[in-house]
Design brief:
This protein has about 160 residues and is mainly α. The chain folds into two domains: about 60 residues, no CATH class; about 60 residues, no CATH class. The protein has six helices and no strands. The radius of gyration is 30 Å and the shape is elongated.
Length: about 160
């Protein structure tokens, strides 16, 4: 049996979280006892099992396509992923700066600006939800306006 290093532990846990290996297979692969692997993974659930299954389905679907099509799909996914991660990171940094500036807010306009920035950053990070989109109807135009006139009679100036 090989000595269990931190690097080996990380590899065992990474492979375990794929959900594609048994405890005995991991022990054999990394030349450690299956009881050692069992102790390391006790109480853990493979957190990447669904991701692995999804990627397998995608790769299987792409297998029947030409090399150029597969390359184009991967390039489009990589580009979109880079952009998404970049804008999410920028939105989080922007929110952190807005929160710092909120500490020094002097008036209601500063607080309102913070609120708008927070809403924009939330949409960037979490995406726009159909439930949060406000549809402007003509409801305000159909409201009957009532005019109230107050007359002041008999007031004495002092």
């Amino acid at each position: 049996m090989a000595k269990l290093t931190e690097e080996t532990k990380e590899k065992i846990l990474a492979d375990f979280h794929t959900g594609k290996y048994t405890i005995r297979e991991l022990g054999k692969k990394y030349d450690v006892s299956h009881t050692t692997v069992m102790k390391m993974t006790k109480g853990l659930e493979p957190k990447n099992k669904e991701k692995v299954a999804t990627l397998i389905a995608i790769e299987t679907d792409l297998a029947g396509q030409s090399f150029q099509e597969v390359s184009s799909v991967r390039e489009a996914v990589d580009t979109a992923t880079k952009h998404l991660i970049y804008f999410q990171n920028r939105a989080l940094a922007n929110q952190k700066k807005a929160d710092e500036l909120l500490e020094f807010a002097d008036d209601l306009a500063d607080i309102d600006a913070h609120s708008r920035i927070t809403a924009r950053n939330k949409e960037t990070v979490l995406g726009k939800s159909p439930e949060t989109i406000i549809h402007n109807t003509n409801a305000q135009q159909n409201v009957e306006q009532t005019k109230i006139v107050i007359e002041r009679k008999g007031l004495i100036d002092e």
